[in-house]
Amino acid sequence: MAHTLCANKRIRQDKKKALANKANKSKMRTAVKKFLTAVxxxxxxxxxxxxxxxxxxxxxxxxxxxIHKNQxxxxxxxxxxRLNAMG
Length: 87
Prior knowledge:
This protein has a domain at 26-84: Methane Monooxygenase Hydroxylase, Chain G, domain 1 (Up-down Bundle), CATH 1.20.58.110. The protein has helices at 5-41, 44-63, 69-84. The protein is elongated, with a radius of gyration of 17 Å. Helices cover 84% and strands 0% of the residues. It is mostly helical. The protein contains 3 helices and no strands.
């Protein structure tokens, strides 16, 4: 257990930030899953819309520091490859 006031405050802040990070990562995963289901269904318009949403979500999560910017770029790139493979 922490002994100082500032250490206790840091623990409280870390818990809040961990919850926020978890929520943001969950939003990102949900957006990616929606895109992948649209790709699996074969609907190119729905896939394109889901891709835009997923890209925005991934970039936002990256900006907030939940994932690294290179990881965000890699994820978006892989989704774009899936979209372009639809023909």
